[in-house]
Amino acid sequence: SLHDALPISMAEEKNVFPPQIQLYKGIETCGESAELYQNILTVFINEGRKKLPLIKKLYKEENWQDYIVAVHGLKSSAASIGALELSKHAKEMEFAGKEENIGLIHEKTDGLLNEYLALLQMLTAFCKDKSDQEQIEFFEKYGCL
């Protein structure tokens, strides 16, 4: 199989990058620039450290006005890195808020937050061991179809 044909380190390395991200989509969004993608990914991770607890707080306080704004922002930033599932789920919560479907928000916000957290943890682990340049080389290697 193709997988067996890959050097072990390459196969392993690829698994470290979150499989729920469609890398080529993210790089496409960045005008095919792996360098720009690396910058946007760094911003996504750093903002996530503030945005995740914020969404949780707004949800707990039932501040739906600001909750809608926060999940709208998540929808856009997740799409920009190629995290299309997360983006779709954030969009679903944005529209639930706009339609005042509070039941759906209660049903699905925990799942959204867990998904977001898992992604941030995987991305943080991926970036921790690699210099910016190594990340860029990885994105060039695996992200351009």
Task: Give an overview of the whole structure.
The structure is a single chain. This protein has 8 helices and no strands. The chain has 145 residues and is mainly α.
In short:
The chain is an all-alpha fold. 82% of the residues lie in helices and 0% in strands.
Q: Which labels suit this protein?
A:
145 residues, mainly alpha, 8 helices, elongated
Q: What structural class do helix, strand and pairing data support?
A: mainly alpha
Secondary structure: helix percent: over 70%
Q: What kind of sheet is the major sheet?
A: none
How many E strands?
0
Mean pLDDT: 90
Strand content: under 5%
Q: Give the CA-based shape.
A: elongated
Q: Write down the secondary-structure element order.
A: HHHHHHHH
SSE diagram, text form:
Blueprint: H1 2-5, H2 8-16, H3 23-29, H4 34-60, H5 64-81, H6 84-98, H7 102-128, H8 132-143
